[in-house]
Amino acid sequence: MSKSQGLKALSALFKPTAFPAKTTTTTRAHGPSSPSPETHFIPLIHASKTLSQLHQIHAQIILHDLFTSSRVVTQLISSSCLLKSLDYALSVFRRFDLPNLFVFNALIRGLAENSRFEGSVSHFVLMLRLSVRPDRLTLPFVLKSVAGLADVELGRCLHGGVVKLGLELDSFVRVSLVDMYVKIGELGFGLQLFDESPERNKADSILLWNVLINGCCKVGDLSKAAALFAAMPQRNAGSWNSLINGFIWKGDLNRARELFVQIPEKNVVSWTTMINGFSQNGDHEKALSMFWRMLEEGVRPNDLTVVSALLACTKIGALQAGERIHNYLSSNGFQFNRGIGTALVDMYAKCGDIKSASRVFVQTKGKDLLTWSVMIWGWAIHGCFDQALQYFEKMKSAGIKPDEVIFLAILTACSHSGNVDQGLSFFESMRLEYSIEPTMKHYAIIVDLLGRAGRLDEALSFIQSIPTNPDFVIWGALFCACRAHKNIEMAEFTAQQLLQLEPKHPGSYVFLSNVYATVGRWEDVERVRILMKTRGVEKDPGWSYIEVEGQVHSFVAGDHAHERADEVSLKLEEITASAKQEGYMPETAWVLHNIEEEEKEDALGSHSEKLALAFGLISTAPGSTIRIVKNLRVCGDCHSMMKYTSKLSRREIILRDIKRFHHFKDGTCSCGDYW
To answer: How far is CA 436 from CA 231, 415, 426, in A?
Structure first.
């Protein structure tokens, strides 16, 4: 049903005439002492756990000639919708000759709750055409469907119909009306409805207040939200949670935390809101601290809480914290459903334990496209091309069709492993076999793929063939390749494209400085730096995380603030001296200043990943694996130092930078120096 058809139908059908109430339930006559067969089948319908069971019960209903009972049909439709079989529910409805209010309500509700909003509205229109009068249980789900369609005109038309039906003051319907206006972006109408509501509605319905507070928070009007909150005659946990969430969206975590402390009775949603809020605002350590506090207070997390906590682990590479959460889940009866399973796979993969990620993947029930995507991405960023390709084929064999994200993962695997021709083949297959149009991200990976392999002219030709204007990321991929292969002429051309696109982005200036520094063009380096200063552009600071005994420690370049800074400095001097004896030579071209070589070596020694490495060596047991997370791409000198240190310390060092994982062991890196 089109929008115009829906509007016309509702406008024509909502006339101020009486609707004949067609709510008769068809039943069969039975003796006074004999129970109705309906009472036997309805509990069976409710007990069915699978669609196959429901089919068998349906067959028996037909054999017993009970398909004429609206009570039985209503339950069949409801159960089909609960089992997510909307087509089966519609089939049952179409074969029933006498649909009444209860049958329509079951179908409209089922369609709305499964996000089949157009179907829900169209069956509401059919209901009116058949002169079946809606009631207070029909309209909330129709209003929910209109909100889901974000159709302002249809919403207003339906509001008029609610008034004509005389249900506008029903508390359930009124809340749904206000909620609809909030969700279709008409908060003003929602507030007007609230103001016009009788005092008894306001006093009796906390939900009415909560819906408006949530709406005000979503549009950023926290002063109005706070005023409504203060005026509430009574509050529940949902009231507190809505306002807290509003301050989190605004980034005001201090105010959110103040409100959280004041909640009389915190529920799992309250805790989850705070955990998710800290994580979304980049304070992952506080998110994890809040999660542990919640467990200490005896609150059982729900799936969303667990996923939020695992996401915090993922962001900062907190493997030990992730393992602790995994153990808690196993000990407390949590099922590894697709939500939790996918989050665990992602956590292990991005915290450097790809083997554990693979084990959890196998255990995860009901794998969907996202689960497969996370696992294939994991193999790709760890440089495991063969495994990424193997899982790609397994996914297709499982009947799951790849999407654009899966192809991003496969192309990334090709790029990291240097499989240029296969990468180009996958790119073509994405377009021709699967009709997936490439995004800027796909184009950027192809440029990266060609650039890493030194095929710079091909990469530039590819960029020039892109049907839309290339973005910053695409030119950035070519720029990185120019630096790696010391193509100054193309680097300068590419830098100009970058500066035109984003004159305030520090990456353009830093990349160009890097290129000039590599070939000793210090006057040009200084010119770029002066340009940065003139335009007010600042370089992003490099930082690294390392987890020791469950606690995450962070280091920034040149950091002397850590409580063990002196020990870290001494250890770094020691491993640098040892590495030099083995042949390590500081790659001073990675320092951007025209200074003496000795000073350059000191500057290299302050890189955050080296500080984290030294701290890991003095803080963990001999032979244990050291895991480091860095926010930028690891520089060539630090990469070299990691290789030497892995050999001298006889340890595996796993470093995650912004691009991929590097597994250093016995003096070599898993990337094969191809990064």
So the answer is: 52, 20, 11
Distance CA 301, CA 312 (A): 15
Q: How far apart are the C-alpha atoms of 357 and 359, rounded to whole Å?
A: 6
Radius of gyration, alpha carbons of the chain: 31
Interatomic CA distance for residues 171 and 205, integer angstroms: 7
Q: Which one, of 81, 672, 134, 155, lies nearest residue 73 by Cα? A: 81
**Neighbouring C-beta atoms of residue 327, cutoff 10 Å:** 10
> What amino acid occupies position 41?
F
Q: What angle do CA 237, 240, 246 make, to 5 degrees?
A: 135
User: Residue 199: its pLDDT value, please?
Assistant: 86
Query: Which structure tokens are listed for 514?
Result: 């890097």
pLDDT at residue 507 greater than cutoff 50: yes
Instruction: Answer whether residue 369 shows pLDDT above 70.
Output: yes
Q: Give residue 635's pLDDT.
A: 85
Q: In the sheet that 551-556 helps form, which strands lie side by side, from edge to edge?
A: 551-556, 543-548, 626-630, 653-656, 661-665, 668-669
- Beta strands 653-656 and 626-630 are parallel
Q: What is the Cα–Cα distance from 92 to 86, expressed in whole angstroms?
A: 10
**In one letter, which amino acid is 237?**
A
Given a cut of 70, whether residue 113 has pLDDT beyond it is yes
**Among 26-30, 424-428, 623-627, whose mean pLDDT is lowest?**
26-30
Helical ranges in 268-384 per DSSP H? 268-280, 284-296, 303-316, 319-331, 338-350, 354-363, 369-381
544, 654 in Cβ contact below 8 A? no
pLDDT confidence band for 561 (50 / 70 / 90): confident
pTM of this prediction exceeds 0.90: no
Long-range contacts of the stretch 437-443 (C-beta < 8 A, 24+)? 438/404, 439/404, 440/468, 440/470, 440/471, 440/473, 440/474, 441/408, 441/473, 442/404, 442/407, 442/408, 442/411, 443/470, 443/474
The encoded tokens of residue 143 equal 């209003």
Tokens standing for residue 248: 């989190």
Of 6, 2, 3, whose CA–CA distance to 161 is shortest? 6
For residue 360 the two structure tokens come to 């959890």
Residue 159 has pLDDT above 50, yes or no: yes
| Residues 6 or more apart whose Cβ sits within 8 Å of residue 303 | 337, 339, 340
Number of H helices and E strands in the chain, helices first, is 36, 6
Q: What's the CA gap between 642 and 664, in Å, rounded? A: 7
How far, in Å, CA of 441 to CA of 454, rounded?
A: 20
Give pLDDT tens digits for 591-644: 544 434 333 344 445 789 999 999 999 999 999 999 999 998 898 889 999 999
The count of C-alpha atoms lying within 13 angstroms of the C-alpha of 139, restricted to the half-sphere facing its C-beta, is 30
The owner of tokens 């039975």 is 30
Distance CA 162, CA 139 (A): 8
Using the predicted structure, report yes or no on whether residue 19 has a pLDDT greater than 50: no
| Token pair of 476 as six digits | 């950035």
The end-to-end CA distance of the chain, in Å, is: 53
The burial of 298, by beta-carbon neighbours within 10 Å (0-12 exposed, 13-18 middle, 19 or more buried), is given as exposed
Q: In sequence order, which residues have a C-beta less than 8 Å from that of residue 186 and are 6 or more positions away?
A: 152, 155
pLDDT of residue 27: 45
DSSP string for 526-552: HHHHHHHHHTT--PPPPEEEEEETTEE
pLDDT digits over 250-298, tens only? 999 999 999 999 999 899 999 999 999 999 998 999 999 999 999 999 9
Task: Round the average pLDDT of the chain to a whole number and report it.
Answer: 88
The per-residue pLDDT for 594 is: 40
